[in-house]
Design a protein that fits this description.
The protein is of the alpha+beta class. Helix content is 33%, strand content 23%. Belongs to the inward rectifier-type potassium channel (TC 1.A.2.1) family.
């Protein structure tokens, strides 16, 4: 028995319509990847299984500076109290060996006057090391051992003061404190500038004291596989900027827009707007310079993942001239505005320059239409008045 044919033709049926519908390209979902540099500049890296821990003790000063404040303060207090207790025991032993602790001892034969117990020896140790000198307890010339302990405690006290106070000073004057006022835009943008597809970020300095010899570096970090099959989990690729081409230094007086031209040497040369969304791309920005007030080199860092890169946007201007003074509105520091930008990759733009021309022409046409529509007035109404003789009419609008 033959199958009954449908009244609806096959080409108009559901399978036929589905087969003829244009299919959008399907991209895989972006794998959640841990970023290498956090937005605040801290490195998202954990050091594990370090067997040679003794290397950190070979550079004690740097280890103390790198410690957190609570550990530094504990070490600071413990070091001074331990040295006071150690030399208090030394003074007590000197007094015990000389017989100063004997209540029947004669005046004038003491090594240290008024040291009758360990408590008084501890107080005398503090007076010697911090040079307080209340005057009740003092050393005499009766025993050379006391003079030797006095010299040793002064030398050890000076060393402890130099190391600990130097450590506290370096922690308070660390260069990363100055980096707190060096800011980056929250998002990066990709737009057309000077007929080239460009990757742009904005940087600024909140302080009036300048950063001398400021330099900016951009790096792309991604997981790559070599032709030999070697997997490089953190492959760092340097990215050239316009400022680095002309000069290696920035005059960071006002906020600047750092521009990277996406050319054939760029790691983003083959990325389109759709491919960027599902890529594991991370762009790291590193700003370095010398602090004008202290002369210490500082460094500020941030990074941009694919979700933080806005395709087809441009930063709004924030510098204006007001009464002969240039004013910077930092409330608009990270604001962007949409602009007409091709959604294809930079490689396709180089291979087909007509794409860019058509996009710019379309943008210009739509912009002129918007201006014309916004400037339309009410339709003109013509009034005709008869002229003497009734033959001709004059139009009055």
């Amino acid at each position: 028995m033959l199958a009954r044919k449908s009244i609806i033709p096959e080409e108009f049926g559901l399978p036929g319509l589905v087969s003829r519908m244009p299919r959008k390209p399907v991209f895989r979902d972006r794998v959640n990847k841990a970023r290498f540099i956090a937005k605040n500049g801290s490195c998202n890296l954990a050091h594990k299984n370090i067997r040679e821990q003794g290397r950190f003790l070979q550079d004690v000063f740097t280890t103390l500076v790198d410690l957190k404040w609570r550990f530094t303060l504990v070490i600071f207090t413990t070091t001074f109290v331990s040295s006071w207790l150690l030399f208090a025991m030394s003074w007590w032993l000197v007094a015990f060996a000389h017989g100063d602790l004997d209540p029947w001892s004669q005046n004038g034969t003491y090594c240290v006057t008024d040291v009758k117990s360990f408590t008084s020896a501890f107080l005398f140790s503090i007076e010697v090391q911090v040079t307080i000198g209340f005057g009740g307890r003092m050393i005499t010339e009766q025993c050379p051992a006391a003079i030797t302990v006095l010299i040793m405690q002064n030398i050890v006290g000076l060393i402890i003061n130099a190391v600990m106070l130097g450590c506290i000073f370096m922690k308070t004057a660390q260069s990363n404190r100055r980096a707190e006022t060096l800011i980056f835009s929250r998002h990066a943008v990709i737009a057309v500038r000077n007929n080239h597809l460009c990757f742009m970020i904005r940087i600024g300095d909140l302080r009036k004291s300048m950063i001398i010899g400021a330099t900016i570096r951009l790096q792309v970090v991604r997981k790559t596989t070599t032709p030999e099959g070697e997997v490089i989990p953190i492959h760092q690729i340097d990215v050239q900027t316009e400022s680095a081409v002309a000069s290696n230094n920035l005059f960071l007086l006002a906020p600047l827009i750092i521009c990277h031209i996406i050319d054939k040497n760029s790691p983003m040369y083959d990325l389109s707007a759709m491919e960027l969304q599902c890529s594991d791309l991370e762009v790291i920005a590193i700003l370095e310079g010398v602090v004008e007030t202290t002369g210490i080199t500082t460094q500020a860092r941030t990074s941009y993942v694919s979700e933080e890169i806005q395709w087809g946007h441009r930063f709004v201007p924030i510098v204006t001239e007001e009464e002969g003074v240039y004013s910077v509105d930092y409330s608009k520091f990270g604001n962007t505005v949409k602009v007409t930008t091709p959604r294809c990759s930079a490689r396709e733009l180089d291979e087909k320059p007509s794409i860019l021309i058509q996009t710019l022409q379309k943008s210009a046409t739509s912009g002129s239409l918007r201006r014309n529509n916004s400037g339309l007035n009410s339709p003109k109404v013509q009034f005709f008045t008869p002229v003497e003789g009734g033959q001709s009419l004059n139009a009055v609008t």
